[in-house]
Amino acid sequence: MGQQTSAIVLISCKDQIGLVAAVTNFIHRNGGNIIDLEQHVDSQDHEFFMRVEWDITNFKIPAHQLGEEFNLAIAQPLGMQVRLCFSSEKPRMAVFVSKMSHCLFDILSRYQSGEWNVEIPLIISNHPNLEKVATTLGIEFHCIPMTRETRQEQEKKQAALLQKHQIDFVVLARYMQIVSGDFIRQYQNRIINIHHSFLPAFPGAKPYHSAHQRGVKIIGATSHYVTEELDAGPIIAQDVVPVSHTDDIEDLVRKGRDLEKIVLARAIWHHLQNQILVWNNRTIVFQ
Amino acid sequence: MGQQTSAIVLISCKDQIGLVAAVTNFIHRNGGNIIDLEQHVDSQDHEFFMRVEWDITNFKIPAHQLGEEFNLAIAQPLGMQVRLCFSSEKPRMAVFVSKMSHCLFDILSRYQSGEWNVEIPLIISNHPNLEKVATTLGIEFHCIPMTRETRQEQEKKQAALLQKHQIDFVVLARYMQIVSGDFIRQYQNRIINIHHSFLPAFPGAKPYHSAHQRGVKIIGATSHYVTEELDAGPIIAQDVVPVSHTDDIEDLVRKGRDLEKIVLARAIWHHLQNQILVWNNRTIVFQ
Amino acid sequence: MGQQTSAIVLISCKDQIGLVAAVTNFIHRNGGNIIDLEQHVDSQDHEFFMRVEWDITNFKIPAHQLGEEFNLAIAQPLGMQVRLCFSSEKPRMAVFVSKMSHCLFDILSRYQSGEWNVEIPLIISNHPNLEKVATTLGIEFHCIPMTRETRQEQEKKQAALLQKHQIDFVVLARYMQIVSGDFIRQYQNRIINIHHSFLPAFPGAKPYHSAHQRGVKIIGATSHYVTEELDAGPIIAQDVVPVSHTDDIEDLVRKGRDLEKIVLARAIWHHLQNQILVWNNRTIVFQ
Amino acid sequence: MGQQTSAIVLISCKDQIGLVAAVTNFIHRNGGNIIDLEQHVDSQDHEFFMRVEWDITNFKIPAHQLGEEFNLAIAQPLGMQVRLCFSSEKPRMAVFVSKMSHCLFDILSRYQSGEWNVEIPLIISNHPNLEKVATTLGIEFHCIPMTRETRQEQEKKQAALLQKHQIDFVVLARYMQIVSGDFIRQYQNRIINIHHSFLPAFPGAKPYHSAHQRGVKIIGATSHYVTEELDAGPIIAQDVVPVSHTDDIEDLVRKGRDLEKIVLARAIWHHLQNQILVWNNRTIVFQ
User: Which residue among B204, D10, D165, D214 is buried most deeply as judged by most CB within 10 Å?
Assistant: First the structure.
């Protein structure tokens, strides 16, 4: 878990001999103590992935030079794509909501209790009804209504707010609006959505109605990074709950709400822990 | 659970006032003691479903007249569709397999230990490799190879064997062949298949490959009655198991096998307990 | 689900012939339409349990006489214990909390969204820190600190508040205090607790520490009615989540919080739907 | 997964700087390609654990010298406890059973299909009833009845058979007998038991009866290494299944059987993959 200051490096590159040795040597010879190390090789694509976290209390390279030195010594020679972050950083998250409150309330409950290492300066909704909740907690709330005609213009307002608040990533907490490709490309692998079905079953609108119609015996929820294709982005977390013929659509909706908020929270947790790499529209979620 | 001799009636009809009272009165005034009663009303279609089981030890109507008397007194006046069976009956089941043995072995393990009230006189396969297992247990085994050209002819052989052995229902225990519409219509809601995915996700061939490609975090298995549309019949039971990026396709196949056999066994159990009604391509599974 | 006005009767008595017929006849001949009926027989104790709900829109007996007439016609002759309630009633619930907020927030989120048919006029805590949350929602909040010495006196204050607010049942939402036998007897089967383990494993204090120490691979949460023996009351709902050696105690606590709030909410739901009967320190939870 | 020949090293030692670097350097400079690496640090005890598997096709050190060289270069200087094995080795497993067949059948089904890299030369039972199954598959079967009086003498016969067949580890597949401390000490962390409850709930005899009595809403099964204290050894795997008031003890037993065989098989899988380390009566199960 580590309350000390630590550095985290996420790596992907073609698999080759000596990758782990190279990285762990770099850390060791500079006085770092590894807190956590996980690696994975995609056996089909021969792609190598790694997440390593180490204590930098006595590290010889100062934090602001670490990225450059790691690049020169390790990443460039070995052809690695690298993401570096520090446990001392507090990511800034915006929440997009519509009318339904259960995911937002769950997020705010965790936010207030300090469960997550995150700052939430901004909530955006296409409806005004959740404003009071946000402002009670001192979070800026903006109601930006959406229609097909105004989408382009309204998204500009959203983008300006995200920029103003230096938002690192966006959570769509049952935000029932299409997000444009332009917007998505600006926040690649940084928009987390919760879809109320066990994807790839029942993408799109009204999945509980479809689930009821099909007569499934289990329903699910799926959190994923948003890509331009609807409900087809890299899956971060999924969970399910059993149902039966005694559950009508209202029951599915009610049982599903509990899944949705928990599965969304798990995805946010992994994102905040810098545990996720995306490859070929799939995620590696280090533990 | 009841070791005594009992009668079971499964009912479906338009919902109306007095249905439960009519049925339970019939049982009561003839000296029957209800062991189990479940009812369900489909709130969209206003269709009524019921399963009632009662001890017939001291029942005034003899078993061979029960069907007729229940029809005259209750079912016809109230427009019910009725299925009557007795706990003393031992259904006769045939198993269709291909090369993979895990579902068949699981079925035979339960058969031998007496877990199920069933007779299995017949196993049919399109491959010879599981013959020894069958014959060791004294079960007739027939290898009936299938090609697109010979299907019609070979299905006739299958049908003749089913008839000869007075088979009540058929279990496709990872039988990797298409079954013709003619065959299916003869055994409506009496052919149970196990599909190796969480339907409706990944119907058809190679679902584990598709699941891996999509990067799901949970895989499933689905048992259902076979209908003419592939993998689209009424679902009886489903279950799932979590997976992660560390699982390659082989791992999914291995983990999936355990799901498949358990989920198939659950469906067979419900079928044998006469707990299943089919309505609008969905199942009511009474407990 | 039923938005219409309905009556619900919960019955327990010695099993005997004709019970279902007697009850359903009573309903039918007075013009009631059964919405839901479930019965259960304890096969060891030969005890009969039943829950029946019927539409009373056109019922010949007015609601205020229903209890008496049912007693005279059915319950007394057949030796039944009966609980009668109406879907139009809105139960009044009090929440007891300590410092931890996750269960309370979850309850309030459901309360505000209208998920439950309940009134929450009162929150009592032994700490002041959640006062603001309560008052924001217009719920009376009382901080009643507890020590071993003051328990008796302080419980009197609690009891007075419950009486003043006409509380029907109490939810201990991670209320980390012992409740006295006197108090429990006044609210028999009307105090719902959430315990943060898979009971009967790890009763008492610090179950996550014990779970970690034992090296379990799954942790759980248990909601139950409070009885005088600690963590030994009738279990209403349980759920679990997998853990591994990578989870330290903090991780168990974090993962457990999600279980606790969901499992507690399920118990409250069943209680509010009048689906629970208690027998021999076990629950029958009708669906 | 790796079909190539690989070496696997399992390490435990006090945590210290440079452990991963030391091991991965050793592998790298001798021409090994890491297939899989996992490490874990117990944050309470500051103990370090690691499992690393590497392709030895072009490894400079021959397999028969690898243990010695690794010890001299790495393990001794760093104070490591080390277990070395090779993917080309096929462990030899004995199965102990009593009358119940479901776990044994499940094991044999996997054995015959080649799911596991294992040799099963020996089955020992205190009852004769499963002899035919064993001998059909060409496995030696010995019936060694047990009474309190004859235990010591009969265990000598068992031990002699294990030695004769060069057994590496023993699986108690619902073997309903106490195993003596002497026996256990000879096979430390090499005897896998399946207990039919969610330990630590319901240790000892008749756990399904106790579960029913307590009214739990979920039942479980637990596989663990056998230690001298009954049902208290290091847990390898657990799983659960929901139950309800409708399930009597027979139902629990039936549903539990499916859990037992699957959970036992998972433990055997992890053991065969050399994924398990034991520390302080807990397991680290690398994935």
Answer: D10
pLDDT at position C143: 97
- Residue C36 near residue C53, CB atoms below 8 Å: yes
Residue B43: band (very low, low, confident or very high) from pLDDT cuts 50, 70, 90? confident
Judge whether D274 lies within some domain. yes
Measure CB to CB from residue C109 to each of A102, A248, A262 and give the nearest one: A102
Task: Check whether residue B212 and residue B140 sit in a common domain.
Answer: yes
C1-10, C19-28, D98-107, range with the lowest pLDDT: C1-10
Number of domain units in chain D: 2
| CA nearest to A247 within chain B | B42
pLDDT band at C133 (very low <50, low <70, confident <90, very high): confident
Residues ≥6 apart with Cβ < 8 Å to D193: D172, D175, D223, D224, D225, D226, D231, D233
CATH of the domain at D57: 3.30.70.260
pLDDT digits (tens, 9 = 90+) for D35-47: 999 999 998 899 9
Amino acid in the structure at residue B199: L
Shared domain check, B142 and B43: no
Output the CA torsion sign for D117, D123, D129, D133.
positive
CB-closest option in B109, B251, B258 to D102: B109
- Subunit contact D251:B1, Cβ cutoff 8 A: yes
Summarize pLDDT for B89-113 with one digit per residue, the tens: 999 999 999 999 999 999 999 999 9
Segment A116-175, tens digit of pLDDT:
999 999 999 999 999 998 988 899 999 999 998 999 999 999 999 999 999 999 999 999
Residue of C nearest to A256 (CA): C262
Q: Which two tokens stand for residue C226?
A: 């409070």
Query: CA of B248: which chain A residue's CA is closest?
Result: A43
Give chain B positions within 8 Å (CB) of C74.
none
Same domain? For A66 and A16 the reply is: yes
* CB atoms closer than 10 angstroms to residue C247: 21
Q: Considering the entire predicted model, what is its pTM? A: 0.97
Residue D283's SS3 state is strand
Domain boundary (B68, B86, B104) is at B86
Establish whether B231 is a catalytic residue.
yes
Identify whether C108 is part of a domain. Answer: yes
Give CA–CA dist A287/C225, Å, rounded.
36
pLDDT of C136 over the 90 cut: no
Q: What range defines the domain where residue A120 resides? A: 92-285
Q: Which residue of A has its CA nearest to D32?
A: A17
Show the beta-strand stretches assigned E in D159-234: 169-172, 191-195, 218-225
B-D C-beta contacts closer than 8 Å: 47
Write out residues in chain A with pLDDT < 50, as ranges: 1-3
Same domain, C199 and C76: no
Query: What sign does the CA torsion over A188, A189, A190, A193 have?
Result: positive
Question: Domain for residue B1, yes or no?
Answer: no
Are the beta carbons of D113 and B102 separated by less than 8 Å? Answer: yes
The pLDDT value recorded for residue B4 is 60
| Same-domain status, A241 and A144 | yes
Boundary of a domain, candidates D51, D86, D121: D86
pLDDT at D2 over 50: no
Q: Which of B113, B246, B287 sits opposite D102 (nearest CB)?
A: B113
Min Cα distance B255 → chain A (Å) is: 17
Looking at the structure, tell me whether residues A191 and A103 fall in a common domain.
Answer: yes
CATH number at A101 reads 3.40.50.170
| Pairs of residues, one from chain A and one from chain D, whose beta carbons lie less than 8 Å apart | 48
My answer on whether A100 and A81 are in the same domain is no
Record: contact C1-A250, CB cut-off 8 A = yes
* Average pLDDT of chain A to the nearest whole number: 95
State ipTM: 0.95
Whether residue D101 and residue B115 make contact (CB cut-off 8 A), yes or no, is no
**Which positions in chain C touch A270 (Cβ < 8 Å)?**
none
Answer yes or no: do B82 and B98 share one domain.
no
Whole-number Å distance between alpha carbons of B267 and B236: 6
Alpha-carbon span A168 to C159, nearest angstrom: 50
